[in-house]
UniProtKB/TrEMBL annotation:
GO terms of molecular function: metal ion binding; nuclear steroid receptor activity; steroid binding
Keyword match Metal-binding: yes
Species the sequence originates in: Aldrovandia affinis
Residues holding Zn(2+): H164, H316, H320
Positions of transmembrane segments: 146-167, 179-200, 212-234, 356-374
Entry keyword set: Cell membrane, Developmental protein, Differentiation, Lipid-binding, Membrane, Metal-binding, Oogenesis, Receptor, Steroid-binding, Transmembrane, Transmembrane helix, Zinc
Cellular compartments per GO CC: plasma membrane
Name this protein carries in UniProt: Membrane progestin receptor alpha
Domain of life (superkingdom): Eukaryota
Length: 387
């Protein structure tokens, strides 16, 4: 009996269960989760506020910039502003200068003309900066023609963009800025002639034209400026065909002379079967210029679709695009010639670069004085009409 009780007691001691302490369960989330949720809600609130602010940007711009007058039709502007077959999209005259500067961002019939040459001028400026890293324009005398053509390209593109942007303020402003545009064209014509004759000419062609090429190029560039200024000033007193002849004929003669070294080089390369990469760019510049000249002399498609090309697609815009591409192709061709043909042009030209640069300055002065003289005549004529 006692033995049995002892065995049961021992078994009971062996199977005794001790209590386990279990942590209290809390129903609230940890503090880190609460902090994360708070941050997320704050970011969502900020995004909502930013979205509200973005919606107010158009209203802010409307209050920051003055309200620009709407464009008008051709019948509402003086005749000197009107272009054939362009019936609308003209800016009203006699506004503040600030208005015409802000029309850079307005839709009108000169917007594309401004931006095409403005962007091209920026592209030429970027090319200038790139070349300045490898070309010593200050110490290398043979880099002078390359510098002249870059400066002249910047001049004509900038003057053209400025003329198309500000020409609508008044009749005198219209004449003034387009006369400045013609000065830029004359500079570019002579700059192209100098660079072509210096870098692209073959020895055979150089022997034929070396005594008279640059002086004749300077004379034709000045005649081009004078013809364009006089044709513009004559206005209705001349038939439109005569007006175009005064503008196109001197420029056409100047181009034929200026590009003759390039054409001779292309022909010689074709006969010899060369694979000069510069010649390919020269071909492109010739083709692009001829296509652009076609659209300048015979503007279309606005002739076939009057009123439908007022803002986009008329011939002068196409001319601007083609001429800008021509200039970029020309600069690339001359860059390649400057690097690859140094032994030839060093032997052919000697100190011609300094003389050519001096003639460039002389051409610029003569063209600017001519434009100023014609402007004064136009100013006197406009004053007499007002009186």
């Amino acid at each position: 009996m006692n033995t049995t009780v002892k065995q049961v007691g021992a078994a009971t001691r062996r199977t005794r269960v001790f209590p386990v302490q279990i942590p209290e369960c809390t129903c609230s989330p940890p503090r880190a989760a609460l902090a994360m949720a708070t941050v997320v809600m704050e970011q969502i609130g900020r995004l909502f506020i930013n979205a509200q602010q973005l919606r107010q940007i158009p209203r802010f711009l409307e209050t920051a910039f003055p309200t620009l007058p709407c464009t008008v039709k051709a019948a509402d502007v003086p005749w000197v502003f009107r272009e054939p077959h362009i019936l609308a999209g003209y800016r009203p005259p006699d506004q503040a200068w600030r208005y015409y500067l802000l029309t850079l961002f307005q839709r009108h019939n000169e917007t594309v003309n401004v931006w095409t040459h403005l962007l091209a001028a920026l592209a030429v400026l970027a090319k200038f900066r790139q070349l300045a890293e490898t070309v010593d324009f200050l110490r290398d005398p043979h880099a002078c023609p390359l510098l002249v053509v870059l400066l002249s390209a910047l001049a004509y593109l900038s003057f053209s963009a400025l003329a198309h942007l500000l020409c609508a303020r008044s009749e005198l402003s219209h004449y003034t800025f387009f006369f400045l545009d013609y000065v830029g064209v004359a500079l570019y014509q002579y700059g192209s002639a100098l660079a072509h004759f210096y870098y692209a000419v073959e020895e055979e062609w150089h022997a034929r034209v070396r005594g008279w090429f640059l002086p004749t190029a300077a004379l034709l560039a000045w005649l081009s400026c004078a013809g364009c200024c006089c044709g513009k000033a004559a206005g209705r007193r001349l038939p439109r065909a005569a007006h175009k002849l005064l503008q196109v004929a001197p420029s056409g003669l100047a181009y034929c002379l200026d590009v003759s070294p390039v054409l001779h080089r292309i022909h010689a390369c074709r006969l010899s079967g060369c694979s000069d990469p510069a010649v390919r760019y020269h071909r492109w510049q010739v083709l692009l210029f001829l296509a652009g000249a076609h659209f300048f002399a015979w503007p279309h498609p606005e002739r076939w679709l009057p009123g439908r090309c007022d803002f986009l697609g008329h011939g002068h815009q196409v001319f601007h695009v083609l001429l800008a591409l021509c200039t970029l192709a020309q600069i690339e061709a001359l860059r390649l010639d400057y690097g690859a043909r140094r032994p030839l042009y060093q032997r052919l030209h000697g100190d011609l670069a300094h003389d050519g640069a001096a003639l460039f300055v002389f051409t610029a002065c003569c063209s600017a004085l001519t434009a100023f003289y014609v402007r004064q005549r136009v100013r006197t004529l406009l004053r007499s009409k007002e009186e």
